[in-house]
Amino acid sequence: MAAPRPAVSVVMPTYGQAAFLPRAVASLRRQTLTEWELVIVDDGSLDATPQTIAGLAADQRIHHVRLATNHGLGTACNVGLDLARAPLIAYLPSDDVIDAEHLSTLAVCFDDPEVVLALVPGAGRRHRRPPTGAGDAPGRHRPLDRTRRGGER
Q1: pTM of the complete model
Q2: Which residues, in sequence order, are CB contacts of 90 under 8 Å at separation 6+?
Q3: Helix, strand, or coil here: 103?
Q4: CB contact at 8 A, 64 and 84
Q5: C-alpha span between 43 and 2 (Å, rounded)
Q6: Mind listing the pLDDT tens digit for each residue in 35-64?
Q7: Of the candidates 91, 83, 87, 98, which has an alpha carbon nearest to the alpha carbon of residue 29?
């Protein structure tokens, strides 16, 4: 029997982000809308990304593909879109997190048949890369401040 079609396909291209992947996937697993699939496209990472993805893929909603060499973000996104099965697509960078209501808020926007694109305000988060490049990223995570322009602080 085929798996039921998800409500939302989340496309996650990644390259060299093994340290951040578990946190990004954990934020997806906390979603109040649970009918999602995650399509991870490893764009030829040279770090522990393949092993990290393998450890996350026990969840039947998580699918992944590995490109043999790095082709860039555009190609990785297009591969993810080709594999997506849901009528709605969300994008989650592998070094980001999303709030628990993100997918449900996004899905509600498409109750209006005129809507073709929706951005959920406040969904972006900025993180610093761990100094060692390994393990979970330490520190506090703060919302992306959209009020700063051109280096003003």
Answers
A1: 0.78
A2: 8, 9, 10, 11, 36, 102, 103, 106
A3: helix
A4: no
A5: 27
A6: 999 999 999 999 999 999 999 988 999 999
A7: 98
